[in-house]
Amino acid sequence: MDLEKLKSTAQAMVAPGKGILAMDESSPTCQKRFDVLGIPSTQEMRREYRTMLVTTPGLGQFIGGAILFDETLRDNTLSGKSFVEVLEDQGVVPGIKVDTGAKELALRFGEKVTEGLDGLGPRLAEYAEKGARFAKWRAVYTVTDTLPSQACYSANAHGLARYAALCQAQGLVPIVEPEVLMEGSHDLTRSFEVTQHAQQLVFEALANQGVNLEGIVLKPSMVISGSDASDRAGAEEVARETLRCLYSTVPPAVPGIAFLSGGQSDEEATTHLNTMNNLDNSLPWAVTFSYGRALQAAAMKTWAGDHANFDAAQTVVLRRARMNGLAAQGHYKPELEKAA
Ligand code: 5MM
């Protein structure tokens, strides 16, 4: 394992004031997002949309890494240059989603386990050869009064750890993503309990597989009330409880924590991140973003599948990236949204 290479890649992904752009929607997920806006879900449209994202002028000021889907890693942008090349030119590290999706967990109704370990070593070698420098694997945990089950916690922790070890063996930084879903009516206390337990088991499994924590990036969900909870916690409480959870589970050797947005509104996700960075100015890790929807939703709406809106959509991408880059340093203010 080339630890120095892994460390420098991880540090570039979460450099001060930078986060990660999650643009690795599988084709069915991309179709879901396009359908809402009446955009035809063809490869040409996905290529145009994703070209718009990666060619945004100045993207590299706020984005340290971009997670691609297999189709995009192998594809060229509208100008004929590969996506990987365009990202490298922007100073953005290219990465790749390598799980094959969250599938039903046998004998555990309503729960999922993420698959994709079979043949993963050679797939990673091919991705590395094509220019990917990091990878991503997402596990999901549904919350109810009785779920997740121990089977769900341990199967997903094991998958994440085996994936992470395979990545490091191939010189790729693994983004380790245990996502506790926001869907549900659970309160903040229950979110804390599940998130903490999921993370504890993930770090135990990473240690068991010999993964070097200096060469990973953690992509967790925030400790947040369920989307249907009756009395949802405010930003300060979310930030405080999320940090309390992370301090109890994540060793300081981990270079960066890059949150997913999980269905939060754009400004909510930015505010939560900003509040965390404001509450504590001696965090042992870079605390930043790896948002999908919270970085892309507004820009996708502006683009709306029409080439005439390409430049306007890029302005929106850059604004969200800038706002989140500021939040990663605790410098965001809601007034800046209007000014921008
Ligand atoms: C961008 O969406 C990612 C891929 O989703 P599918 O595998 O379901 O197609 C997703 O893993 C994403 O990277 C994370 O959930 C973070 O995105 P959000 O929208 O939660 O910030």
3D architecture notes:
The mean pLDDT is 98. The longest helix has 21 residues. The N and C termini lie far apart (44 Å). The chain has one domain: Aldolase class I (TIM Barrel), CATH 3.20.20.70. The strands form 2 sheets. The chain has an 8-stranded parallel beta barrel with strand order 1-2-3-6-7-8-9-10, surrounded by 8 helices. The chain has a two-stranded antiparallel sheet with strand order 4-5. It is an alpha/beta fold. The chain is 47% helix and 15% strand. The structure holds 2-O-methyl-1,6-di-O-phosphono-D-mannitol (5MM).
Topology:
Blueprint: H1 3-13, E1 19-23, H2 27-37, H3 43-54, E2 63-68, H4 70-73, H5 83-90, E3 93-97, E4 102-104, E5 112-114, H6 120-129, E6 134-141, H7 150-169, E7 173-180, H8 188-208, E8 217-218, H9 235-249, E9 256-259, H10 266-279, E10 286-291, H11 293-303, H12 310-327, H13 335-339
Parallel strand pairs: 1-2, 1-10, 2-3, 3-6, 6-7, 7-8, 8-9, 9-10
Antiparallel strand pairs: 4-5
Helix pairs in contact: 7-8, 8-9, 9-10, 10-11, 10-12, 11-12
Bound molecules: 2-O-methyl-1,6-di-O-phosphono-D-mannitol (5MM).
The site of 2-O-methyl-1,6-di-O-phosphono-D-mannitol has 14 residues, from helix 11.
